[in-house]
Amino acid sequence: MMFVVRGAGVWPALIWLLERSDGGNRTFREILTHQRPPYDNGPLWFVAVLLIFSAAAATLTGRRQPPPAPPAPMRRRHLLTAAILIAAGSFIVRLAFPVDSAQPANLHLW
Questions:
Q1: Same domain assignment for residues 55 and 13
Q2: Which secondary structure element, helix H or strand E, spans residue 74, and what is its range?
């Protein structure tokens, strides 16, 4: 909810006030509909990403039976494998979505 309030209300209002104080004459509606990117979610980008991933995880796990208990505790090689896979995955995502690139809904997927 905070994401929507900030993205649709606070951010455009701040831009409008700053432009007015600088002699600009755009209306609040023009800023809301013609801003590039359409809105800047600022420090709340992670909230939107967390909401998307949480909804996906709840949808996927809600339809399956709970997994059986793990047969053995994790070992160092499991953690090392996970770290390597996460690093490789992060690198590949960064190739597709570099910093400050145009990303869907300005979500900073990298």
A1: yes
A2: none
Same domain, 59 and 80: no
Express each pLDDT in 49-79 by its tens digit. Answer: 788 888 888 888 777 677 777 778 888 999 9
Domain range for residue 30? 1-64
- The number of folded domains in the chain is 2
Question: Is a pLDDT exceeding 70 seen at residue 84?
Answer: yes
Neighbours of 86 (CB within 10 A): 10
User: Helix (H, G, I), strand (E, B), or coil: what is residue 108?
Assistant: coil
pTM confidence score: 0.44
On the question of pLDDT at 102 being above 60, the answer is yes
Q: Are residues 100 and 52 in the same domain?
A: no
- 56 is a domain residue: yes
Instruction: State the burial class of residue 64 (Cβ atoms within 10 Å of its Cβ: 0-12, 13-18, 19+).
Output: exposed
Taking the C-alpha atoms of 17, 22, 24 and 25 in order, what is their torsion angle to the nearest 10 degrees? 60
Q: What whole-number distance in Å separates Cα of residue 84 and Cα of residue 79?
A: 9
